[in-house]
Amino acid sequence: MEKCAQPTCFVPDTGCDLGHTDLTKCPIWHGARAADETAGNNLSGEMLMPWSGSAFGLADLRFVSGRAKPIVIGVVGPQNAGKTTLLAAWYLLLGRGLTGPEGRLFAGSYTLSGWEAAAGAMRWTPGQPPRFPPHTTSRGGRAPGLLHLTFRDEDGGAPVDYLFTDAPGEWFQRWAINTDSAEGAGARWVSDHADAFMIVADREALAGEAMGSARGSLQFIARRLGAERGARPVALVWTKADVDIPTEMEEAVRSAVMDAMPDAAEHSVSVVGTPGTDPLLNTGVGLTGLLKWATDVRRPGVDLPPPASTSGDSLFIYGGRKP
Ligand SMILES: Nc1nc2c(ncn2[C@@H]2O[C@H](COP(=O)(O)OP(=O)(O)O)[C@@H](O)[C@H]2O)c(=O)[nH]1
Ligand SMILES: [Mg+2]
């Protein structure tokens, strides 16, 4: 089937961007087989939504940015560092009601299929141990993949949208060396648009045979992030906390990150539960605390001045000068 001329319409992957259930009625769509496809759709009684539920690409962002600009959390780190696993673990814990940021309630997601794709392999089913998600490649279709969550304060209040970037580590390694490299363009998007960053230090890689190069690439990424982030919050996240690493290595990495970003928060996480606990009740290590850190991120807002006078015309109160 042909593509639609409307740049933000992804028929037939999703439904018509302008909302036409019958494509023949769409003023933009001129696909050759529009009539056939529509007839097929009607027969099966299926109506496609204008979004797919997969991880968002940049064109899909308007679904959440209409209400207010969402908070973007950039998950930055080399490949195989456990970035996707961390996001998937949050999703599974939220879904099972085992965690949630204090005082906030889960209020929806436009990317449930995207979360499922990351987490599906980690689900525990009887007779089949949970596995880790497949590697996120830099050749993935919609890039960078953004996973969406909405939370609402328990005591009312407006819902807040969050987007977590699930990008391949290769991008950040290229970007760390050259911010303008074509292969690192996705990482550059993250660095330009994120409201906060999690820089991921992989304890397994830092303890393994290639520990020297793992440390080197993390140092590069930390230096680059330190130069690019301005005043935006950062957390140093040690993943695979169940793996021991030499103290000198831990110190070297910590000081590389802290030298570049002295105000960075520090968190250690692992999806491996404490031995002996029921796998169904495994909440991992440190995952809830890190989710709270991420959802506490707020964009610096504008403080409106207090009303200048209550006797004047209320239409002009906010623009009023102090007497
Ligand atoms: N021991 C341990 N291994 C982990 C943990 N989280 C992830 N891993 C391992 O890290 C590998 C890469 O994870 P992935 O999330 O795909 O990394 P990404 O490339 O940064 O997204 C997985 O296949 C696991 O083997 C953890 O908490 N503990
Ligand atoms: Mg990944």
Question: Layout of helices and strands, plus pairs?
Answer:
Blueprint (H helix, E strand, L loop, with lengths): L33 H11 L17 H4 L5 E6 L6 H13 L8 E3 L5 H8 L25 E9 L6 E7 L2 H9 L7 H9 L2 E7 H5 L3 H18 L5 E6 L7 H14 L4 E4 L18 H9 L28
Parallel strand pairs: 1-4, 1-5, 5-6, 6-7
Antiparallel strand pairs: 2-3, 3-4
Bound molecules: guanosine-5'-diphosphate and magnesium ion (MG).
Guanosine-5'-diphosphate binds next to helix 3.
Characterise this structure.
This protein has 323 residues and is of the alpha/beta class. The chain folds into two domains: 1-50, no CATH class; 58-295, P-loop containing nucleotide triphosphate hydrolases (Rossmann fold, 3-Layer(aba) Sandwich). Helix content is 31%, strand content 13%. It is built from ten helices and seven strands. It has helices at 34-44, 62-65, 83-95, 112-119, 169-177, 185-193, 203-207, 211-228, 247-260, 287-295, and strands at 71-76, 104-106, 145-153, 160-166, 196-202, 234-239, 265-268. A seven-stranded mixed β-sheet has the order 2-3-4-1-5-6-7, with helices on both faces. Helix 5 packs across helix 6 and helix 5 (169-177) crosses helix 8 (211-228). Mean pLDDT is 83; it is low at 37-43 and 138-143. Bound molecules: guanosine-5'-diphosphate and magnesium ion. Magnesium ion binds at residues 83-84, 136, 166.
